[in-house]
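Module 6 notes. Inverse folding takes a fixed backbone as the condition and produces residue identities as the prediction. Think of it as a translation problem where the source language is geometry and the target language is the twenty amino acids. Below is one complete input and output pair. Work through it position by position during the lab.
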């Protein structure tokens, strides 16, 4: 179903490169090969859509610095944004340059993580970056009015 939603939102004549937000080691899914929930989600979306679209999937973002503190301990949007600055770097820049990239994450609360990944991919030369998340945290409020 998730792949169907994404499929309906994207122009059909455009090729996309799918990637995912990397996890920190303590957030990986126990499996034969350690991978994040976002990686598993990206793989599922790719498998559902690869026969209907021009898609490829690559790990294009690396976690290069641990966050100062866990995101759930940050109490404001500003703290969350600052907490992820410099945590990610683009890999495989030759694959990114000029491409339309879809970056997938499992959950968004403030959007700080996916926005930082978006910035990193654009700086690496992506033509366009689309963020896509499975779920949004409801009820999280940093004291700002809605």
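Target side of the pair, the amino acids:
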């Amino acid at each position: 179903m998730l792949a169907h939603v994404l499929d309906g939102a994207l122009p059909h004549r455009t090729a996309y490169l799918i990637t995912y937000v990397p996890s920190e080691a303590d957030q990986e899914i126990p499996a034969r090969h350690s991978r994040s929930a976002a990686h598993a989600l990206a793989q599922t979306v790719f498998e559902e859509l690869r026969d209907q679209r021009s898609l490829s999937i690559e790990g294009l973002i690396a976690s290069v610095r641990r966050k100062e503190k866990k995101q759930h301990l940050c109490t404001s949007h500003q703290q969350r944004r600052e907490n992820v600055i410099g945590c990610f770097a683009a890999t495989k820049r030759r694959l990114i340059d000029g491409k339309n990239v879809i970056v997938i994450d499992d959950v968004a609360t403030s959007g700080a993580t996916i926005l930082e990944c978006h910035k990193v991919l654009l700086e690496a030369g992506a033509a366009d970056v689309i963020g896509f998340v499975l779920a949004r945290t409801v009820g999280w409020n940093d004291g700002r009015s809605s």
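Reference fact for the lab report: DSSP finds five helices and six strands in the chain.
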